[in-house]
Amino acid sequence: MTHIVLGYPSFEANRQVIRQMVENGVDCIEMQIPFSEPMADGPVILKANQDSLARGTTVGECLEFGAEMAATYSIPFLFMTYYNIIFKYGEKSFFMAAKKGGIRGLIVPDLPPEMSPDFFNYAKEMEIAPILIYAPTSTDSRMAELNTFADGFIYCVARRGVTGAKSEFGDDFNHYLARCRAATRLPLAVGFGIRNSEDVKAIIGKADMAVIGSQTIQLVDEKGVEAVGPFIAGLR
Amino acid sequence: METTGFFGNWGGSYIPEILNQTFNQLKNEYTKAKSDPDFWQEYIDLMSTYSCRPTPLTYAENLTNHFGGAKIFIKREDLNHTGAHKANNVMGQGLLVKRMGKKRVIAETGAGQHGMATATMAAKFGFECTIYMGEVDVERQRPNVFWMEKMGATVIPVQDGSRILKDAINEAFRDWVSNIDTTHYVLGTACGPAPFPEMVSWFQSIIGIEAASQILIQHGKPPARVFACVGGGSNAMGIFQGFMNDSTVELVGVEAGGKGIRSGRHASRLCGNDASPGVAQGYKTMFLQNDDGQMLETHSVAAGLDYVGVSPILSDLWDKKRVRFESATDKEVMEALDLTMKMEGIIPALESTHGFVQAFKEASQLSPDDAIIINQSGRGDKDIFTIAHAFNDPSWKEFIIALGSEYKKQSRKCSLEREQDTR
Ligand SMILES: Cc1ncc(COP(=O)(O)O)c(C=O)c1O
Question: Residue A177: what pLDDT?
């Protein structure tokens, strides 16, 4: 799975990046609707959020763009955003708009399930997967509790911290992934700090998906959209 | 399942999963401390030996005569160690940090008062300390930056977003999720995820407890009204709690009116119509945000009030109409500050002066039998550059220009010497 920030550097660039991702075999794309206070994001994605908003990106445009992508390609598309965007739009209206646009799941890092039963009811009713997050600090009982709310897959954060910085995939990590595996029957995606084919190799056999986030955003910043295709192809 | 931490519709704990365990630990320690009378006694002892508690309640006779209405009393939180009510919260959290066995503290700061207090606490208790401060605030509260660094804290200017208080809070959270095992985040106001709003208010309640008994001794009965400035809401919650159960006491929170409520350049959440319900920085409250839920730029001459959100407990008290909210403009603040300095020889912080503005507007409507209390949350020394600038003070300007050219000469000389050394 890959991650992009909508409207950064532009929707047109998002289109080209997504085309190259799909052509090179990405199986799922997480599209971040920018928020002014992205608390869980590191410098690269933070800056992308801010620049996108400074260019005038609106939630309405993001919903439209998501629908366009879902109609164009057959892989699943997800929205990732912070809870205020959905809360302010209206939870029900947001789910309806996402459903209409063919969006398959939502990732909301600052919404623990106990904070909004409605959100999870709408998710069930409209068949949009609420993707929940496991962290290395999650206890076994917390993982089990989260599993009762989750659907689609579980997003396993590889380490403490925010998006972007490098992760180590050593013994502690393997033990953590084994705990994740034991807590749920849903597929496991591993994200935060996955940058190259070696990182991807380190999780093959232990998890089902790798999430590439800051790395592609940085790549587009530095080398332009054309660099994305070869990068993705080289990960396998 | 954890559903506490709500005050009516507001509050909660909207945190990333990575923080879940840390918050459980914090909630446990807080709950234990709250039910342990020894903890509160330890806190009182610390505050009466390291800080200046109980702080006095000062009768402002000249201002009272000037306005010709209610007797004006000032609760002197400026006389705390480090010059503001912030110390109450920080020393309390410091005691909790010791109990949790953590070795590093971080904090956000706007006016720099909370950062100052945290840096002193860290120095006293032997913690490592990092302070996040918006770049704009670093500029306008330079004296506090200097002192924080001198006490051994690392001050990190935050360059993201609007580069003020809310951005410093985001950055502190980013640090915390990376260093949860060693670090406690000393949140500086009655905002953020549970248990912070309740916990910070608990430590600040010491203001209200003292004021309620002081006014009985000095005035013989409870005050008619109590005024406090509201940034995040901690000093207001602190003093209000002393009078919450007495419905004859009217509680008035004063927000930053900036350039005027109608100008759009202010930080008034509960007074005015510009805020709406939202969820950010881990809690639900009234936020200054646009229709998409993006936070707006705020404005105030007082860095400590220049914030998009407000305590969820105050949003609830606003819903219940227990607290009335007003606002004071930057201009009104400078006038009230001038008057207070000239008549009473007291220098309130720009934040605190917001409370004075509203009290001055209302004092003459009340009778001389009545008393009002203004919570002077802090002292104005930290604002010397901002205040001197606003008064356009000629002799201060000359002094700065002279000092500036002196430093310039010195640094030129230094770099010349360095050049010669390397040759
Ligand atoms: C002196 C002073 N008063 C008031 C405030 C505002 O905070 P609160 O509303 O939490 O009391 C600050 C914040 O920095 C401050 O330094």
Answer: 96
Residues lining ligand 1, Cβ inside 6 A: B 84, 86, 110-111, 113-114, 189, 229-236, 304-305, 349, 351-352, 377-378
Domain range for B69 is: 52-83+205-385
Number of structural domains (chain A) is 1
DSSP annotation of B289: B
Interface confidence (ipTM) of the complex:
0.96
List B residues 134-163 in contact with A (Cβ-Cβ < 8 A).
Answer: 160-161
Q: Count of alpha carbons within 13 Å of A90, Cβ hemisphere only?
A: 5
Q: How far apart are CA B301 and CA B331, in angstroms?
A: 9
Tell me if B292 and A139 make a contact (CB, 8 A cut-off).
Answer: no
CB contact under 8 A, B160 and A110: no
**B25 and B93 share a domain?**
yes
Q: Give the pLDDT score at B3.
A: 52
Residues of A with CB under 8 A from a CB of B: 35-40, 42, 46-47, 50, 53, 58-59, 82-85, 87-89, 109-112, 114-115, 132-139, 142, 145-146, 157, 160-162, 165
Give the residue numbers of A marked as catalytic: 30, 41
Tally Cβ neighbours within 10 Å of residue A175. Answer: 10
Same domain assignment for residues B340 and B370? yes
* B67-116 pLDDT per residue, tens: 999 999 999 999 999 999 999 999 999 999 999 999 999 999 998 999 99
| B295, β-bridge pairs | B289
Cis peptide before B193 (omega within 30 of 0): no
Cβ–Cβ under 8 Å, residues B345 and B44: no
Residue B305 CA, ligand 1 centroid: distance in Å: 6
Instruction: Quickly list DSSP for A5-24.
Output: ETTSS-HHHHHHHHHHHHHT
Residue with tokens 């000359």: B398
pLDDT-based confidence at B120, cuts 50/70/90? very high
Q: pLDDT confidence of B1, banded at 50, 70, 90? A: very low
- pLDDT value at A58 more than 50: yes
Report whether pLDDT(B2) > 70: no
Note whether B242 and B343 are same-domain residues.
Answer: yes
Kindly tell me if the per-residue pLDDT of A13 is higher than 60.
Answer: yes
Contact A110 B18 (CB under 8 A): no
One-letter amino acid of A145: E
Write down which residue in B128, B162, B196 finishes a domain.
Answer: B196
| φ, ψ for residue A189, nearest 5 deg | -110, 140
pLDDT tens per residue across span B339-379: 999 999 999 999 999 999 999 999 999 999 999 999 999 99
Q: Both tokens of residue A47?
A: 């800056």
Which pLDDT band, with edges at 50, 70 and 90, does B203 fall under? very high
Atom nearest to B234 CA in ligand 1: 10
Q: Which of B15, B16, B279 sits opposite A87 (nearest CB)?
A: B279
Total count of domains within chain B = 3
Within a domain: residue B378? yes
Residue with tokens 């620049």: A51
Considering only CA atoms, which residue is closest to atom 7 of ligand 1?
B231
pLDDT (tens digit per residue) in B270-320 = 999 999 999 999 999 999 999 999 999 999 999 999 999 999 999 999 999
For the cut 90, the answer to whether the pLDDT of residue B117 exceeds it is yes
Contacts of residue A146 in chain B, CB cutoff 8 Å?
Answer: 17
Question: How much of chain B, in percent, has pLDDT values that exceed 90?
Answer: 92
Tell me the CATH number at A172.
3.20.20.70
CA of B351 to the centre of ligand 1 (A): 6
Answer yes or no: do B252 and B189 share one domain: no
Angle between helices B350-363 and B330-344 (to 10 degrees): 80
CA distance B186 to chain A (A): 17
Q: Search chain B and give the residue with CA nearest A132.
A: B17
Residue A129 structure tokens: 């997967």
